[in-house]
Amino acid sequence: MAEKESKAFDPATKSVDPATVEMIKKAQAAGVETIWDRADKMKPCPIGAEGACCRICSQGPCRVPPVKKAKEGEEQKKQAVGLCGATAETIVARNFARMVCGGAAAHNDHSRGVAKLFKEVAHGKAPGYKIKDIRKLKQLARDYDVPLTEGEGDDKKSRSTEVIAQELADKILVEFGQQDGELVFAAKRPPKKRIELWRNLGVMPRGCDIEIVELMHRTHMGVDQEYHNILKQCTRTAISDGWGGSMISTDLQDVLFGCPVPVSGEINLGVLKEDHVNIIIHGHEPVLPEMIYVASQEPEIVQYAQNKGAKGVQLAGMCCSANELLMRHGIPTAGNYLQQELAIITGAVDAMVVDVQCEMQSLANVAKCYHTKLITTDPRARIEGETMHIPMDEHHAIEIARQIVREAIDNFPNRRAPVLIPDIKYPTVVGFSYETIQYLLGGSIRGSYYTLNDNIIGGRVRGVAGVVGCNNCRTPHDSAHLAMTKELLKNDVIVLVTGCSAMAAGKEGLLTPEAAVKYCGPGLAEVCETVGIPPVLHMGSCVDNSRILMAATACVKAGGLGSDISDLPAAGAAPEWMSEKAISIGHYFVSSGVYTVFGGSFPTTGSALFTDYLFRGLEEELGGMWDLELDPVLAAKKMIAHIDKKRAALGIDKARERVLFDMEMRREMQAGGSEE
Ligand code: NFS
Ligand code: SF4
Question: Where is [Ni-4Fe-4S] cluster annotated to bind (predicted)?
Answer without folding.
Answer: 284, 320, 358, 470, 500, 542
